[in-house]
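Weekly modeling sync, notes
Attendees: S.R. (lead), two postdocs, one rotation student

Agenda item 3: backlog of single-chain predictions. S.R. asked that every request posted to the team notebook include the full sequence so nobody has to chase files. The rotation student volunteered to paste the first one in as an example of the format we agreed on. Action items at the bottom.

Example entry:
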Amino acid sequence: MEFPYWNRTLGADHFYVSCAGLGYESDRNLVELKKNSVQISCFPVTEGRFVPHKDITFPPLANITRASHAQGNRTAKYLGFVRYNGVKESKLVNELRKDSDFLIESEPSNGMTLVGRLGSSVFCLFEYGADVSGIGEALRFGCVPVMVMDRPMQDLPLMDVIGWQKIAIFVGSRGGVKEVKRVLDRTCKDDECAGRRRLGVVASQHFVWNHMPQPYDSFHMVMYQLWLRRHTIRYARREFV
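Predicted structure, as returned to the notebook:
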């Protein structure tokens, strides 16, 4: 009786925010919350805490301001760039460090240095589960995101808005740097890479969080995804005597 709108549908027309995501608990209220309501969490979500057909993730918060926006230098110095903590798989990191085609940060860089590195690299590598907060920044500066993962990714931000298969490249980590370079060479020829960069720059507007929401920014894209899910789960109206 205290929450009539919740009782009406057992939470099917509600959403909640939990950065880490909820697991499957024994408490009935949490079970209904997890099963029926839309969960908004931070990307990436711990395995088992995300229901793909109804849940969504926040676009990562970009740290580079709009004032820093500039087209990247298309005369690339590096094949790939890895931000500090962007890849944590030790064997792969060691192999990347030994390859002169890749630039691996050993410590966080300041804003202007980061802009230069993003703009002078063809690809930006991110390990699924590590620090992926720079994906929006990579897109903005024309650096094609390469997601290194060993299991399917079902929690990418803005899945209903962005055609990730046309923008990013997905590769496993077990084959080491040779496999990474083979996949990059096979899937991203000159014309295709230019297309991925162009689409990425356009998509980057959806990763911007503004103090006052602007059209097509992160706030509006999250609201749009919630609207799409307004009828994902339906329950008959409950009447109380």
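Discussion: group reviewed the output briefly. DSSP finds nine helices and eight strands in the chain.
Action items: rotation student to repeat for the remaining queue; S.R. to check formatting next week.
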